[in-house]
Design goal:
Elements (H helix, E strand, L loop, with lengths): L18 E3 L2 E8 L4 E7 L4 E6 L4 E8 L2 E5 L2 E5 L4 E4 L5 E4 L6 E8 L4 H8 L5 H9 L4 E2 L6
Length: 147
């Protein structure tokens, strides 16, 4: 799939999609074979558990609020205007510990199976099922600490 030139307005998304992923709202803004981008809203106390993308680089550009990261054993924090770089194969987790809503723009390159994963886990409330489906779509969640 080729990327069409143009502007995706603030009020629109790819295929008019809005996903609920682990309590966060993801709105896909661009989709091609080479990359996928989405606007994400993280309510307070939501997170993406530590995981690995073995086939994609991931980026997060901060728009509002603060996110805490666990990056391959190191803690980091990103604020508005910061860019988080999450290289393929590097374990990472994303946490909103700020007590406020966070808004950011994510993108991955290449897209691989991530768009299909988000379709599969939209509104899935069972974390074990999310982990199972993620493994089928090239995302490997890590066991909780001490497990």
């Amino acid at each position: 799939m080729m990327m069409a030139p143009g502007v995706t307005s603030a009020t629109s998304s790819v295929q008019d999609i809005t996903w609920n992923i682990l309590g966060q709202t993801y709105v896909p803004k661009q989709l091609s074979e080479n990359s996928l981008s989405w606007h994400a809203t993280f309510p307070p106390d939501t997170f993406v558990p530590p995981h690995i993308h073995p086939t994609q680089d991931e980026f997060i550009y901060m728009l509002e609020g603060t996110l805490d990261f666990w990056l391959d054993g190191t803690d980091a924090q990103a604020k508005p205007g910061d860019l988080a770089r999450l290289p393929m194969g590097i374990p990472h987790g994303i946490f909103n510990k700020s007590g406020q809503t966070v808004k950011c723009l994510f993108w991955v390159s290449p897209t691989r199976k991530l768009f299909d994963l988000f379709k599969a886990i939209h509104n899935v409330p069972d974390p074990a099922e999310v982990v199972r489906l993620a493994a089928l779509h090239e995302v490997e969640f890590l066991p909780p600490p001490g497990a």
